[in-house]
């Protein structure tokens, strides 16, 4: 049982010296141990002597790297403080686990982990609805899925319970939702095991209910014309219409458009600046706004201010406020608004009079038409804020800080001109591609 001063680098590379596992005791915190197994798992434990009977105990603190070394040391010190005063942390942990339900775990995971991610709201919605059987306020959903396992205690949780939850979603025909919930459960169970809430990763070896096929839907010029016209009379909130249109004009993610705030927008300079915490790759993103986008945002701000005045409340910081105005409308609400436009006639399904599409398909449509207009793929990547374009090589990531705003502005303005021709002339406008302009 070697004793070493543990470091993050050491923990990352730790392997058993002989046999199936080796315990590496920390030279900094008494009793803290990193156990490296031949299977590649590295787990933090705290070894201590129970005061009540003098027996040696081993308490699991979590799995590296789910729990970092600094956090493991802090947790070990905290637990040792209780042990000195006669506490029995293992017994307490067992009692806590015995009383903790899957619904409790979902709320812990949402609060402590998922909420910190960009997709946190969607993860919370999926887990609460399909696993806990609850809405956002914690109220039981009437007629919830038969696969709800929120009341199952963690001490009695089995793989078949997780399968039951997934199968119930699949059986109602929501294959994509089932795959997403499977991924959410896998992440939550891994997190719970790393914290010590579960003794094993129950999802290990389980296969997703289906394999999702990558979408490649792109709307043609004719489809854009038809869709835009149908959207004007669609039964939905005007703000939803504007969000859908902005996804097509800007090639932006629907969640980013939904969460747009007043502070992010500079209408005088026609710029939208998204802070790192609001984008997928955590890189500040500056997007130029064509005049048609500026006009839509101005109209939405005016409507939002009128609503706030009518409701006798302060205007929301969000340009597309949700119910109550405290938060933004969610991307799921826009997806549902589109889904409600679905029509099936003679076996053919359409949304807004064209083949079914999503807001992400509109983002792809924008990128495709930009390419047809001769825009450099590198610039398209910057407009879409793709990590491969933003990071690039070590040279571009560290030294080249130019944001290509001029090139992005030119590209989106050319696309807006083409789009205006499609919408108002019913045909592709005679817009000169970038390559021909430069000739």
From TrEMBL:
The keyword DNA-binding applies. GO terms for molecular function: DNA binding. Residues 214-413 form the Tyr recombinase domain. SUPFAM superfamilies: DNA breaking-rejoining enzymes (SSF56349). Keywords: DNA integration, DNA recombination, DNA-binding. InterPro entries: DNA_brk_join_enz, Integrase-like_cat_sf, Integrase_catalytic, Integrase_DNA-bd_sf, Integrase_DNA_bind_dom, Integrase_recombinase_N, Phage_Integrase. It comes from the Bacteria. GO terms for biological process: DNA integration; DNA recombination. Belongs to the 'phage' integrase family. This is Site-specific integrase.
């Amino acid at each position: 049982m070697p004793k070493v001063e543990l470091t993050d680098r050491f923990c990352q590379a730790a392997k058993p010296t002989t046999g199936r596992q080796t315990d590496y005791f920390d030279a900094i915190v008494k009793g803290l141990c990193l156990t490296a197994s031949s299977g590649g798992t590295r787990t933090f434990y705290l070894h201590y002597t129970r005061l009540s009977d003098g027996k040696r105990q081993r308490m699991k603190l979590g799995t590296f790297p789910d729990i970092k070394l600094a956090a493991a040391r802090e947790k070990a010190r905290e637990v040792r403080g209780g042990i000195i005063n006669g506490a029995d942390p293992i017994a307490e942990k067992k009692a806590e686990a015995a009383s903790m339900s899957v619904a409790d775990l979902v709320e812990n995971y949402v609060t402590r982990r998922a909420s910190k991610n960009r997709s946190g709201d969607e993860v919370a919605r999926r887990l609460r609805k399909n696993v806990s059987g609850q809405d956002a306020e914690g109220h039981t959903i009437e007629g919830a899925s038969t696969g709800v396992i929120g009341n199952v205690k963690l001490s009695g949780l089995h793989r078949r319970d997780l399968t039951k939850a997934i199968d119930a979603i699949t059986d109602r025909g929501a294959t994509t939702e089932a795959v997403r919930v499977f991924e959410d459960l896998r992440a939550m169970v891994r997190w719970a095991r790393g914290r010590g809430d579960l003794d094993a990763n129950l999802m290990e070896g389980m296969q997703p209910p289906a394999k999702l096929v990558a979408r490649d839907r792109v709307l043609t010029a004719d489809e854009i014309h038809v869709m835009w016209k149908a959207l004007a009379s669609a039964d939905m909130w005007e703000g939803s219409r504007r969000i859908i249109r902005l996804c097509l004009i800007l090639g932006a993610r629907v969640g980013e458009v939904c969460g747009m705030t007043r502070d992010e927008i500079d209408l005088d300079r026609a710029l939208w600046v998204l802070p790192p915490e609001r984008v997928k790759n955590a890189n500040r993103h500056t997007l130029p706004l064509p005049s048609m986008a500026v006009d839509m945002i101005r109209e939405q701000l005016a409507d939002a201010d009128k609503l706030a005045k009518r409701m006798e409340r302060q205007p929301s910081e969000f340009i597309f406020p949700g119910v109550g105005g405290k938060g933004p409308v969610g991307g799921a609400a826009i997806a549902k608004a589109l889904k409600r436009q679905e029509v099936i006639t003679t076996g053919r399904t359409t949304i807004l009079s064209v083949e079914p599409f999503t807001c992400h398909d509109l983002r792809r449509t924008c990128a495709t038409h930009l390419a047809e207009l001769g825009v450099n793929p590198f610039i398209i990547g910057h407009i879409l804020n793709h990590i491969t374009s933003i990071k690039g090589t070590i040279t571009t990531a560290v030294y080249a800080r130019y944001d290509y705003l001029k090139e992005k502005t030119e590209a989106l303005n050319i696309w807006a001109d083409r789009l205006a021709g499609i919408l108002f002339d019913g045909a592709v406008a005679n817009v000169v591609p970038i390559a021909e302009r430069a000739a």
